Amino acid sequence: MSMTPRWSRKKPHFPLLAVLLLVFIACSILYNEFSIQQIHESPDHVTRSSQQTPFTYVKPNLPKGASEVLDRFSSCNSTRSYSGKKIRWVDPDAESGRRRSISQESCDIFSGKWVFDNESYPLYKESDCPYMSDQLACHKHGRSDLQYQYWRWQPHNCNLKRWNVTEMWEKLRGKRLMFVGDSLNRGQWISMVCLLQSVIPANKRSMTPNAQLTIFRAEEYNATVEFLWAPLLVESNSDDPVNHRLAERTIRPDSVLKHSSQWEHADILVFNSYLWWRQGPVKLLWSAEENGACEELDGLGAMELAMGAWADWLASKVIPLKKRVFFVTMSPTHLWSREWEPGSEGNCYNQKTPINEESYWGSGSDLPTMRMVDKVLSHLSSKVSVINITQLSEYRKDGHPSIHRKFWETLSPQQLANPASYSDCIHWCLPGVPDVWNELVFHFL
Ligand SMILES: *[C@@H]1O[C@H](CO)[C@@H](O)[C@H](O)[C@H]1NC(C)=O
Ligand SMILES: *[C@@H]1O[C@H](CO)[C@@H](O)[C@H](O)[C@H]1NC(C)=O
Ligand SMILES: *[C@@H]1O[C@H](CO)[C@@H](O)[C@H](O)[C@H]1NC(C)=O
Ligand SMILES: *[C@@H]1O[C@H](CO)[C@@H](O)[C@H](O)[C@H]1NC(C)=O
Ligand SMILES: *[C@@H]1O[C@H](CO)[C@@H](O)[C@H](O)[C@H]1NC(C)=O
Question: Which of 21-30's residues contact partners 24+ apart within 8 Å by CB, and which partners?
Fold first, then answer.
């Protein structure tokens, strides 16, 4: 009896339908991504206003129902500048236990170079992954130079553990692995699903599209690989996975409850957050504020508040032996080719090879943000491991889709005449750079 797999009774075309549905939903999700234009036009030069006011501390995570849930229609009744309110989190005594700093191991795995290796890479074929996104399938969308798929990350003084899909599944057996964040994190999730799915027979795996939370399930391992759309970590007006391209960002800086209620039961969590904080000032609607009165703060300051609420959740809820938490650092953009090739005027368009210059760092990776993230994570002791992708991805100006992806908006003749003008230099082709981010997760798991 138990020998008969129950899924064998399913009609054979069901998985195909499910995949089609997923593709459809993925397409609609991917529409309305970052306004590439917006990021092109507004390199963030916001300077933080000096905040001399003594801080008022507020407790994060007011009980549900204490305030209305934000959605994309939420608006502020009035806006004043930031008053200096802060989230109270992590007692400073926890300092003594140093955080699990990956770089403190014998070798800094994040420091190294890219080595051309067309024997072991790519780790999967673009066309073999039924869950591939049209935003990231560069070959399918006309990219003919495929070298971007053939690079291996080689740390300077050690080796990255070799990807082994069976071993990864064994680590995931009976567990929930959840990616939480924005579209860069979703790209990493798709990469992980593509890396993992090949060894699971088509009738023993499934993908459940569920608006904000999407779940890939492998029955024989009783395991899931999930993605939760939460680009700003805390509750925000951009939490709708489809319609979130809004002129203004509004967040509840003290509320992670809405999202943490979905991620709290995951066994392994991979968070990211960055680019959404770089699109102008952010409106803050504190939970205790009853009259819709907002405060306004620059992106970095707002991100620090959100990271504070997130860190507070981790500090109080994560037991390191029971839950693994990773934070993926800033994903670099390659919007200005003059930064690696002085005098040139383009961006990532038509870039076919990585940057060779050791320690190259572009303006897309904001150093003050990195220092703030460093600070927040250092307070969390051993509760979170850093996947520091920034430097290694900085070298990969060749890894972005540029024009080789699906664009959902119609491109004008002027745009078509100037491909760089609509190139996506933010996301990453698959197979490609995010596969290595996942190898890093595998390395530390
Ligand atoms: C790898 O690249 C080299 C040089 O470009 C080429 O000669 C070789 O055939 C390639 N090998 C594979 C397996 O693609
Ligand atoms: C991959 O991992 C499995 C299970 O741990 C092991 O049996 C197998 O030998 C590994 N494969 C390689 C190529 O290392
Ligand atoms: C499957 O995994 C879940 C946790 O994700 C666990 O609660 C459940 O007991 C597992 N089921 C089996 C049959 O192992
Ligand atoms: C905005 O203010 C008006 C009048 O002060 C009040 O009636 C309304 O409820 C407020 N809106 C919100 C969203 O708090
Ligand atoms: C990540 O690496 C860079 C150098 O490549 C370093 O400056 C930064 O502090 C690291 N960030 C974290 C959070 O470990």
Answer: 21/209, 22/131, 22/207, 22/209, 22/214, 23/134, 25/209, 26/133, 26/134, 26/209, 27/134, 27/406, 27/408, 28/242, 29/229, 29/241, 29/242, 30/133, 30/134, 30/135, 30/183, 30/406, 30/408
